[in-house]
Amino acid sequence: xxxxxRNAYGEKLAQLIQENENIVVLDADLTKSTKTAxxxxxxxxxxxxxxxxxxxxxxxxxxxxxxxxxxxxxxFAIFATGRAYEIIRNSIAYxxxxxKVCATHAGLSVGEDGASHQSIEDVALMRVVPNMxxxxxxxxxxxxxxxxxxxxxxxxxxxxLGRGKVEDVYNEDSxxxxxxxxxxxxxxxxxxxxxxxxxxxxxxxxxxxxxxxxNVSTIKPLDEEGILELLxxxxxxxxxxxxxxxxxxxxxxxEAKAKTDIATPLYPIGVNDVFGxxxxxxxxxxxxxxxxxxxxxxxxx
Amino acid sequence: MDINVLKKHAxxxxxxxxxxxxxxxxxxPGGSLGSADILTYLYFEEMNITDTNKASTDRDxxxxxxxxxxxxxxxxxxxxGLIDDDIHTFRQLGSRLQGHPNMNYIExxxxxxxxxxxxxxxxxxxxxxxxxxxxxxxxxxxCGDGESEEGIVWEALMAACHYGLDNLCIIFDQNxxxxxxxxxxxxxxxxxxxxxxxxxxxxxxCDGNDFDSLAAAFKKARENKGKxxxxxAHTVKxxxxxxxxxxxxxxxxxxxxxxxxxxxxxxKEVN
Lengths: 301, 271
Hints:
CATH architecture of chain B: 3-Layer(aba) Sandwich
CATH superfamily of the largest domain in chain A: Thiamin diphosphate (ThDP)-binding fold, Pyr/PP domains
Oligomer: heterodimer
Shape of chain B: globular
Strand content of chain B: 5-15%
Order of helices and strands of chain B: HHHEHHEHEEEHHEHEH
CATH topology of chain B: Rossmann fold
Number of strands of chain A: 14
Number of helices of chain B: 10
Radius of gyration of chain A: 18 Å
Strand order of the largest sheet of chain A: 3-2-4-5-7-6-12
Distance between the termini of chain B: 17 Å
Largest sheet of chain A: 7 strands, mixed
CATH class of chain B: Alpha Beta
CATH class of the largest domain in chain A: Alpha Beta
Strand order of the largest sheet of chain B: 1-2-3-7-6
Distance between the termini of chain A: 32 Å
Largest sheet of chain B: 5 strands, parallel
Strand content of chain A: 15-25%
Order of helices and strands of chain A: EHEHHEHEHHEHEHEEEEHEEHEHEHH
Number of helices of chain A: 13
Number of domains of chain A: 2
Number of domains of chain B: 1
Helix content of chain A: 25-40%
CATH superfamily of chain B: Thiamin diphosphate (ThDP)-binding fold, Pyr/PP domains
CATH topology of the largest domain in chain A: Rossmann fold
């Protein structure tokens, strides 16, 4: 099956808002796209539209959280983390308030809307903020589990969700431990650390490469111990991300590695400090090297 | 309401402000002095905050959106017995009295502020929370006229009007000055009343340095239903310290020893 992680978010949020009277949802005129409309359908009294005003949406979220609410706030990743960045930083993260920024349409997979809407910096922006936890689920099942997980954390969280359909990696019965990385396949010599929809690409590439594949969905706090152990036991490592190679997964792993004497080389496969462009999701991902074929090519050298 | 008692409290708040900014050789005396009467009225007459309920959210809430006027906020909290910090630690390493307010250090502080405009936005969130909880307590936000140049203030007011937040009272402290000079020379945020009304708010103008005028304005705000109230409080920046009054140079400057002495003479304790 293939599903959009934003759909999984909408479905899970609609469930949580009915179970937990403390949850309030905010959106900025994108309820049908971010899928918070699902929560609105079942609980309109606790869903508020801020209009096209992401900065104020984040401030309102902070105020609601300061009054004891668990707040889910959604927009496209580019606006949630870009336009409203400093409000998230100063009014949500600094006071350590219970706000979940669940941003959809992250990465180049937004497709047709083009570079203005393709957030390739959001993980970097959120990761650098103190108190903020950062999650990037790779499929619908993990997305639902992440949403459930963050709803139980008392503090600010960022969840990166996608617009396009992605193949299932997990299933209904999967059990998640977001404190740890998840080794999906054990291989030899090469380890592929992947984030978001690059997990599926890594799994496809791994057959030919006999590589170890790791889903890193908790970007912060990073399971450094788990990552370092895999770096020690492999000859080459790659960080795969639908995000700029600056500040995202590659950076996070590099930072952990740089504090040790581990010599295993680590290379990035991601967006190489360039803006994206319009096109079908599949075509854009291919052009920017975010495919299994490109991974194989790079690893084989 | 005993005007003489309020005047005495306000004078003590002003003395606290000068003590803090002088001790730290840093901070923002001008706007703090100008808003001292508004703060005194809020904490001694208007809001139901007490030493026993200060840690709770089930009381009236106050957001100092113009967070740089923290000497005013700490000054009133000290005067009202809601903090017992040594105010001379203001802006010093390890002090709870941060340069800009931190809600996690001090129970009586309802929001961490400092980045202008955001406090008004957070106050809207608090007012929505009270509506959801059918909580009758009110939410107050103090915003500078210069601060109103931040777009988020108007985004927040749009939302407050849309959601009919009559439990929200935004006070514009209109002293006409900001760091770089007269607000109208810098960029021209005025008039605030007409702008706020165009957004759909109920507006009241008052003299922000006069307790009778403040009392009348806050009474009207309480009686207003169905929309948020915006009080435009006309104040004198630097009020009470002769050489600071209406002088934007004292927006964010600390007095030296001679200036400190003059200020404390100007602000003689009221008996």
